Amino acid sequence: MALLSGKTALVTGGGRGIGKAIVLDLAGHGADIIVSDIDETAAQETASLVQGTGRRSLAMKADVSRDQDVDALVKASIEAFGRIDILVNNAGITRDNLLMRMSEQEWDSVLSVNLKGAFLCTRHVVRGMMKQRSGKIINMASVVGVMGNAGQANYAASKAGLIGFTKSAARELASRNIQVNAVAPGFIETDMTGKLPEEVKQNYRTGIPAGRFGTTQDVAGVVLFLSSPASDYVTGQVIHVDGGLLM
Ligand code: NAP
């Protein structure tokens, strides 16, 4: 039997990048998937790839920073699949700028999507998980939330906040057999990081003991572990997937 057979996973920001790799990995191990993204076409494309693996999928457009979107997303997911066993709060954005030049809008948008989005999705999903007396919640943090990064005060604050949120939720939900963990990727090659100038990337690469950037698959493998029964006694943890950048 497949590792996640009979399980349903909801992945936000699942249309591309790390989220898409997570969707395909979880489906490849037997889970049915709700692929949610603000980009409806991307969500649909990823969902159709899931169907190619023989698993069921639902594509849903939702902006995780809007409560009514998240409410509709979770209701439609339960209607389609009856339950949600795994929630991956992956949707995230950057609006980089030096602190002195950072606008209120740049600050608010990053905090709204990266931190409030995870809160809203968790709040809507957790009720069902509590009734089921089981669940896995995985929050996509970042090494930047632990180390900080010049030009990313908004992003670092959102990811540091997500780590505090993860630990608090883990403490609240542990007795209900719901595990809440965070993954903190380092530099992973996706569209988000593809925008950086080559010299900046070279600078980052020299600081990574593994000598290479991570792949989306490197992150998806750890999310698979945190989604599976193999991690049933792991909660409130932040697992770094960064080639040794921070240790
Ligand atoms: P990505 O390629 O930009 O993909 C993120 C996805 O989330 C996109 O499809 C994006 O849609 C979607 N999204 C954006 N705003 C949303 C919203 N309000 N509601 C729902 N979906 C939304 O990013 P990625 O590199 O795969 O990153 C995924 C996660 O990993 C993020 O939380 C990021 O902070 C984290 N992370 C990434 C790295 C890295 O090196 N790449 C490192 C550490 C942590 P649009 O394309 O329409 O914007």
Descriptive report:
- The structure is a single chain.
- Helix 4 (104-132) packs parallel to helix 6 (153-173).
- The protein has helices at 17-28, 40-52, 67-81, 104-132, 144-147, 153-173, 191-194, 198-206, 216-227; strands spanning 8-12, 32-37, 57-61, 86-89, 135-140, 178-185, 238-241.
- Strand 4 (86-89), helix 4 and strand 5 form a beta-alpha-beta unit.
- The chain contains nine helices and seven strands.
- The protein has a single domain (8-188, 215-235), classed as NAD(P)-binding Rossmann-like Domain (Rossmann fold).
- 48% of the residues lie in helices and 15% in strands.
- The model has no long low-confidence stretch (mean pLDDT 97).
- It is an alpha/beta fold and 247 residues long.
- A seven-stranded parallel sheet has the order 3-2-1-4-5-6-7, with helices on both faces.
- The longest helix is centred in the middle third of the chain and has 29 residues, at 104-132.
- Bound molecules: NADP nicotinamide-adenine-dinucleotide phosphate (NAP).
Could you tell me how far the N terminus lies from the C terminus, measured between alpha carbons in angstroms?
36 Å
Largest sheet: 7 strands, parallel
Give the overall silhouette. globular
Helix fraction, binned, reads 40-55%
- Percent strand equals 15-25%
> What gyration radius follows from the Cα positions, in whole Å?
17 Å
CATH topology: Rossmann fold
CATH architecture: 3-Layer(aba) Sandwich
The CATH superfamily turns out to be NAD(P)-binding Rossmann-like Domain
- Which CATH class? Alpha Beta
Low-confidence stretches: none
| Sheet/helix structural class | alpha/beta
Mean pLDDT: 97
